Each structure stands twice: as structure tokens, then as C-alpha cells.
Amino acid sequence: MGASLLRLFFHDCFVQGCDGSILLDDTASFTGEKTAGPNVNSVRGFEVIDQIKANVELLCPGVVSCADIVALAARDGTFLLGGPIWAVPLGRRDSTTASLNQANSDLPAPTSSLATLISAFGNKGLSPRDMTALSGAHTIGFSQCQNFRDHIYNDTNIDPAFATLRQGNCPAAQGSGDSNLAPLDVQTQLVFDNAYYGNLLVRRGLLHSDQELFNGGSQDSLVQQYSSSPPLFAADFVTAMIKMGRISPLTGGAGQIRANCRVVNSR
């Protein structure tokens, strides 16, 4: 679940800031972000957040926000899979709103070009270096066939043997095997390390957007540096995660501390 919790934090922070808005369920009178294209049948870990929240509420009721729990869970999942540890700035409060439209527009797609990725992260105050470091989160976790089908069948910047390997579990026909999973990191899919960047150097990025980071563009040299220096990647990843965690937080009297992460407090 570590990769999913890390992604949950990313998908929360890029929509209205790190405010727990992604956790809100749809109701008859409220539309949340869970049915947005980048999230539906894809983002997961909600039950883990629920369990953590329930445990925290027993000891410390009404104090710790769901937004802070998501930030901490992303850090802990990273660490437990072999990645770095860092101090997470806390004090975020939970939103009373969500934005389906912003989730659909602001979260970068797996088909994104390098220019699109740089722009999407830049819009959130994150530099190209931050973007390339944060993309290293794809050293863990899996992606669905529908997200990488075009890359393995139609792109030319891919190792042919790797394309053939992935085609074995991802049929060319749209609608066939769409949800079949493949590891984002072909080498060490359950370990948070720098192998993702080594994959890119030999054209074995799973997503089109992954391989865009090493494809004759502005991030090529940084990808090479991260591949050869685990400490450099770890340090830049931590810096970028802390920076991402500071996107438009609700503080002071803004927002609330939800009692149940899935619903806005009734009073």
C-alpha cells in the first residue's frame, strides 16, 4: 500500500492544496474528487487513512487533521519500503470542499510531454528539478495497462525487449485488459531506491511521461545524476516532498479537523 499512500498525497496536494479534499465521499448534494479521471478505479488507500484516523481519534480526539495523516502516511510508506525519512511539517486543516474539475485539469496524465509535466508542476510552485525528483516515486507501485498501452505499442523511445515483455500482459486492443497491472520499476518494484532512473537510461520507463524525463530534453543530465547517486536522489526527493506538502494548506481558523475523513463535519 506504500506506493498508493504516496500517490494519495500527491493527488491531494495538486487539487486545492494539501487539504484532505481527495478523501471526501460523494453524496446526493456533494461531488468529491474520487470520480475524477485520474482518481476513479485507481487511487486507493482510503481505508488505511480511515483506520489511522480512528486510532488517532481514540488517543487525541479532534486534533490531528486527515490532511496531516495523509502527509505522514506518504512519508511512512516511503520509509518502510526502504526510502528516506524526513520531518513532515504539520498543522494542515481539512477542507470543507473538493474540486472534481481541478482534479481533472491539474493532475498530469501518464501521456504528458516533458513540457506539460514542467508546466503542471510549475503551476503548483514546484521546479523542474522537484518534478524529476518526485517522479522517482515511480520506483514503487504499479500502473494499469490503459496508462501505458500507447507507450509500449506506439512509442519508439522504448527498449524493444521491454516493450515485448509488457505487451505480454497488456493487449493492444483498447478495452482488453485495461486494468492489468505492471510494475513502474521493472527492477525493484517493492523497494524505494533509485532504480527508476537507471530504467530510464536504458529506455525502460513504463509510462510515456516517465520516459519523457530522459528523451533528449532538459532533465536528461539530472536523471543520469540520480541514477549514479542514491544520496542525491534521496535528498532532492525529501526536499520536493516537503515543498509539495506546503501547497496551499488550510491553517489557523480555515477549514476544520474532520472527525471522519470521508465527510465534512455536520456542525
Short recap of the structure:
By secondary structure, the protein is mostly helical.
SSE pattern, N- to C-terminal: HHHHHHEHHEHHHH
CATH architecture of the largest domain: Orthogonal Bundle
Q: What's the total number of strands?
A: 2
CATH superfamily of the largest domain: Peroxidase, domain 2
| Largest pleated sheet | 2 strands, antiparallel
Cofactor: heme b; Ca(2+)
Binding site for Ca(2+) 1: 12, 15, 17, 19, 21, 33
Subcellular location: Secreted
Binding site for substrate: 108
Description of the structure:
Residues 1-265 form the Plant heme peroxidase family profile domain. Disulfide bonds join 13-18, 66-261, 145-170. This is peroxidase. Belongs to the peroxidase family. Ascorbate peroxidase subfamily. Its cofactor is heme b; Ca(2+). The structure is a single chain. This protein is mainly α. It has 2 domains: 1-107, Peroxidase, domain 1, CATH 1.10.520; 114-242, Orthogonal Bundle (Peroxidase, domain 2), CATH 1.10.420.10. The chain is 44% helix and 2% strand. It has 12 helices and 2 strands. The chain has helices spanning 2-13, 46-59, 66-80, 100-106, 114-122, 128-135, 145-154, 160-167, 195-201, 208-211, 220-228, 230-244, and strands at residues 142-144, 181-183. A two-stranded antiparallel sheet has the order 1-2. Helix 1 (2-13) packs across helix 3 (66-80), helix 6 crosses helix 12 (230-244) and helix 9 packs across helix 11 (220-228). It is globular and about 60 Å long.
